[in-house]
């Protein structure tokens, strides 16, 4: 069945080569480095020899070379040859080749868009042990991206991707960690499981995992863990997290978990504004509403902030009435999705900006983010 699927999908690719888009360079994931070959021409020859001996990684690498073309190696761009080699590598169990084929059909790059076939390639990749193939299926099913939303199946693939013993998906780990932290997405709140998923994702460089892990340790950790939480926030801030820079600015302004330092506080506040596309300003950030409200509940002053919107009236509560709602980093449909909220989740409105609401999830973590007002109703 698997070989028939591969043969059929490969045929579909070859029939579509007349509709070639601009060349796109896939990420080369073959374990053999080209730098080992001083003579680049010899690299291509070595790959051909290894492919002839049956190495699926060499066959996959040849597919990439033909897909993009490599003039310095004497390789002309040839979509048909690329698809033939990638499909052959996938047939031999190379999950990365399956994912590459899926990506091409999902995005319609060099071939006609065929998302049903792309999902089949991702399934082949996932069954071959490629965590990122499973993560792609999880995202598609979780968001209902062109298919009926299926949270149960999405959770299955998230777990498959996050639990891969060879190379787990940091994205999937971050999603599961966030949902265990919040108790959303069909998962009960469990800080131990949240930590178990967020820590490896954060260590792998996932920015949201770094921020959420740092925030969790400050909110629910021991004194030693709170110190580690600050360190994770600093890592997230250095990687460009607006939320981490905001929170660190507040912590240094107040002297919470760190030595009070107005200069460092101002630097983090300026970094946050630059990342938001706003010029640095001189202001007393200690008076602004920030994620630190979950750490210092005694701080109740809420004043208007350009980056957070106008404060909402005290006591406004809403609940999600749509099947699900995206919690976004900024009040913009194109902004990063921090997580998904299921129907019926109760939220506190802390600020407004046009048709957007900055909300706070009413649980121990009090995660904040932006949600469109059309997705909720007052309670």
Write a structural description.
There is one protein chain. By secondary structure, this protein is α+β, with helices and mostly antiparallel strands. The protein has three domains: 2-128, Alpha Horseshoe (Serine Threonine Protein Phosphatase 5, Tetratricopeptide repeat); 172-294, Tetratricopeptide repeat domain (Serine Threonine Protein Phosphatase 5, Tetratricopeptide repeat), CATH 1.25.40; 310-378, SH3 Domains (SH3 type barrels). 49% of the residues lie in helices and 10% in strands. It contains 14 helices and eight strands. It has helices spanning 2-15, 40-52, 56-68, 79-91, 95-107, 115-127, 131-143, 151-162, 170-182, 191-203, 207-220, 223-238, 242-254, 262-275; strands at 310-311, 317-320, 324-328, 337-342, 346-353, 356-361, 368-372, 376-378. The strands form two sheets. Strands 1, 2, 5, 6, 7 and 8 form a six-stranded antiparallel sheet that branches. Strand 5 (346-353) and strand 6 (356-361) form a beta hairpin. Helix 8 (151-162) packs across helix 9 (170-182). The model is unreliable at 1-8, 11-38 and 282-308 (pLDDT under 50).
